[in-house]
Every structure is written in structure tokens, then in C-alpha cells.
């Protein structure tokens, strides 16, 4: 995989030289597990790291300028983004400006250009000859920590595979090739988890343990500025983990009701004649992805759901198989502040004043498809 050894060597060099290392992960379960896997590998070598998980309500999509503004107090440092970064051009500029050396570890589609950073590890980039491309980000990180730890990898393999398997299921990537390898071993390990919080969750009988885990944890909204999934998966006290499980269940019920109410409201507004569905939500932006996923099941056309937050609009996109939401937004990039993701599931941020222009541009794009 292109730059795999270079990224491994740079992180190990930072550990050896006692450099500050900041890990910035996306807010979903793939980003969270990526931070945990790489962070624990760094600790295994004898290093330390500072974890940051994206707050989409506050910072928008990915490693934005707003996110850099909030974490610039950690500079100078080696900053590693996980499950984001490949489309965060402004964030990359700001990171360099405030004194970060920036490494991107991502698995999303690479756009026509790449950010100006120290190193990029993304199997989707040009001249990457690794035969398999469709990893979850935690799968890319899994391969990285194999390289970093060498013979010592076996000590952490079970734990890392449990996390990578959960992320692979959560991110709905194809269950083939390298992903199948991760799932075959990881799901077997999850029958008797080594992770304390998952042990506690396993105490409750269920036929679909991994799906239950993903459903409970794959939430993006923070509580008190802290990502709950990260707290849960790193909790080493079983009693505390059990308390968190009950809290997560209540939160899940509340979220389900909110999604059903807002889905109904949006569906009632749709005539069926639209080329694309481009609707404003009256709910927290972390619900946009779930609602967009439900709407596209009903209407089978590109869905753009956004929420206004001051002068900015933050949204999620879902597209049907064979369409490419990232390519569509790339063609309309003049109106966007940031965007990225997968062809059928992506996100975006823009200034509210550009919403009408963006919609027209997207309608024009999909009208030609």
C-alpha cells in the first residue's frame, strides 16, 4: 500500500523523539475504532497520543478549519487524521499554518487533487498498487499497525481485529478479499471479546451481537464534547461499561423516535417529481445521515439532507448504486466549503448563501446522468 512503510516509520520516529502526536478521527464508528487501534499501537511501542474525535455539530465535515482552530493549542505536533482528511483542503492549509505536520490516513475517494500534507495513506490514491481498495478506514489502520509493530503485533492482534471487524460491518464495505479476512477472524474473536466494554455487552443474549453493537455505538453526536462510542470502547471498568450500556439504550430509543418523526415530515414534502431530493432538516445534523438513508429507500434518487447552523449548512448525502455523490459534489465544488466520502454515502458543508446555487448545480449534474 502506497506510503504504508513511510507512515509507519514517521510515527515510530515521532515516538522515539518524544514528539507530541495528535490523532483526529471522524465521528462515526469507523473513525473512532481507527483512533483506538492506532493509539494503542503507539502505546505498545512506548509512545503517547492525544485523541480528538470530530464534532460535526461544531466543526462540520472532517478535519475542517474550525476543527484546526480548536486543536491548534496542541501545535507543534504530528497530526494524523483518520477516516477523514482526503478532501479537507482548507483544513490542511490551516494545519500547516498553525504548526502541525499533517499525515492523512483515509479510505475515501480521492478527488482530482490532494491536500498539501506530509504523507497520505489511502488505497484509493493514484499509483497505489495494493490490489484491494475497498477497506473500512479501520482496515487500512489495521494493515498499518501490522507494519508498525512487526513481531509484537501478535500481542494486540485479537483486540485490533475485534475493533476492525466492528468498523468493517459498520461502514458497510464489501465483505470480500482483505475485508473477508478481517471479518472471518474478527467475528470469531467477538464470540468471546477481549475488550472490557464488549464483554459487558455480550452478557446480554442476542443473535446478532455485532449488528447490535454497531446499532448502539454508530452515533456521531458527542455528549459534553466527548464521543460516547470512544468512551465506551476504551472503558476498562466492567461496572462503568454496564452503566454506559443502559445510557446508550435510552439514547438509541430517543434517537429512533426523532428519526421517525423527521423522516415523515420530509417525506410529506416530496412530490416525487424532483430530480434530486434536496431538503432542509429541522433537527440536529447528526441525524441527517440516518434520515437520508431512510428517504432514499422510499424514492430511489439522490438525497441531500442539510441543517443550517448559523452561516453554514452541514449535510449528508445518499445516492443509489451506480451514482457517485462525491463526483457530483466535486463538479459543484465552487459552492462547497468541504465535502467527501463514498460514492453512495457522503457529507458536505457550505455557506447558507450558496444553497440555491448548489442545488441548481446538482440538479444539472444528475439531469445529465
Give the helix/strand layout.
Elements: H1 4-16, E1 21-25, H2 29-45, E2 50-53, H3 56-59, H4 65-71, E3 77-82, H5 89-98, E4 100-105, E5 119-121, H6 137-149, H7 157-170, H8 177-189, H9 196-202, H10 209-217, H11 228-233, H12 238-269, E6 277-280, H13 288-299, E7 303-309, E8 312-318, H14 325-331, E9 338-342, E10 345-351, H15 355-367
Parallel strand pairs: 1-2, 1-3, 3-4, 4-5, 6-7
Antiparallel strand pairs: 7-8, 8-10, 9-10
Helix pairs in contact: 1-6, 2-6, 2-7, 4-5, 6-7, 7-8, 7-10, 9-12, 12-13
Please characterize this protein's 3D structure.
The structure is a single chain. This protein has two domains: 4-189, inorganic pyrophosphatase (n-terminal core), CATH 3.90.1640; 270-367, Diaminopimelate Epimerase, Chain A, domain 1, CATH 3.10.310. It contains 15 helices and ten strands. It has helices spanning 4-16, 29-45, 56-59, 65-71, 89-98, 137-149, 157-170, 177-189, 196-202, 209-217, 228-233, 238-269, 288-299, 325-331, 355-367, and strands at 21-25, 50-53, 77-82, 100-105, 119-121, 277-280, 303-309, 312-318, 338-342, 345-351. It is an alpha/beta fold and 369 residues long. The strands form two sheets. A five-stranded parallel β-sheet has the order 2-1-3-4-5, sandwiched between helices. The chain is globular, with a radius of gyration of 20 Å. The model has no long low-confidence stretch (mean pLDDT 94). The longest helix has 32 residues, at 238-269.
Amino acid at each position: 500500500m502506497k506510503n504504508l512503510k513511510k507512515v509507519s516509520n514517521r510515527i515510530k520516529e515521532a515516538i522515539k523523539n518524544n514528539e507530541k502526536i495528535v490523532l483526529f478521527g471522524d465521528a462515526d464508528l469507523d473513525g473512532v475504532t481507527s483512533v483506538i487501534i492506532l493509539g494503542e499501537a503507539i502505546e505498545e511501542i512506548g509512545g503517547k497520543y492525544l485523541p480528538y474525535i470530530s464534532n460535526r455539530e461544531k466543526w462540520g465535515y472532517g478535519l475542517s478549519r474550525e476543527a484546526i482552530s480548536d486543536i491548534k493549542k496542541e501545535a507543534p505536533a504530528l497530526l494524523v487524521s483518520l477516516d477523514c482528511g482526503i478532501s479537507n483542503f482548507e483544513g490542511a492549509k490551516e494545519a500547516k499554518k498553525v504548526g502541525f505536520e499533517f499525515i492523512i490516513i483515509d479510505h475515501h475517494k480521492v478527488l482530482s487533487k490532494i491536500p498539501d500534507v506530509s504523507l497520505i495513506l489511502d488505497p484509493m490514491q493514484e499509483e497505489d498498487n495494493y490490489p484491494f481498495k475497498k477497506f473500512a478506514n479501520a482496515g487500512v489502520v489495521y494493515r498499518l499497525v501490522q507494519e508498525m509493530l512487526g513481531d509484537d503485533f501478535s500481542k494486540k492482534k485479537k483486540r485490533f481485529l475485534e475493533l476492525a471487524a466492528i468498523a468493517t460491518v459498520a461502514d458497510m464495505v464489501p465483505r470480500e478479499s482483505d475485508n473477508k479476512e478481517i471479518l472471518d477472524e474478527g467475528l470469531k474473536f467477538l464470540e468471546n471479546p477481549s475488550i472490557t466494554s464488549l464483554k459487558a455487552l455480550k452478557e446480554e443474549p442476542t443473535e446478532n451481537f455485532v449488528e447490535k453493537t454497531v446499532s448502539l455505538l454508530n452515533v456521531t453526536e458527542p455528549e459534553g464534547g466527548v464521543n460516547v462510542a470512544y468512551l465506551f470502547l476504551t472503558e476498562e471498568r466492567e461496572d462503568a461499561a454496564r452503566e454506559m450500556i443502559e445510557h446508550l439504550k435510552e439514547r438509541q430509543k430517543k434517537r429512533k423516535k426523532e428519526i421517525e418523526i423527521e423522516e415523515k415530515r420530509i417525506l410529506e414534502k416530496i412530490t416525487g417529481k424532483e430530480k434530486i431530493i434536496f431538503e432542509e432538516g429541522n433537527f440536529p445534523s447528526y441525524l441527517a445521515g440516518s434520515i437520508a438513508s431512510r428517504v432514499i429507500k422510499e424514492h430511489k434518487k439522490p438525497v441531500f439532507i442539510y441543517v443550517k447552523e448559523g452561516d453554514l449548512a452541514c449535510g449528508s448525502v445518499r445516492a443509489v448504486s451506480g451514482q457517485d455523490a462525491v463526483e457530483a459534489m466535486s463538479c459543484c465544488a465552487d459552492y462547497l466549503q468541504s465535502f467527501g466520502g463514498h460514492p453512495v454515502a457522503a457529507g458536505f458543508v457550505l455557506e447558507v448563501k450558496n444553497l440555491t446555487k448548489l442545488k441548481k448545480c446538482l440538479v444539472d449534474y444528475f439531469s445529465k446522468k
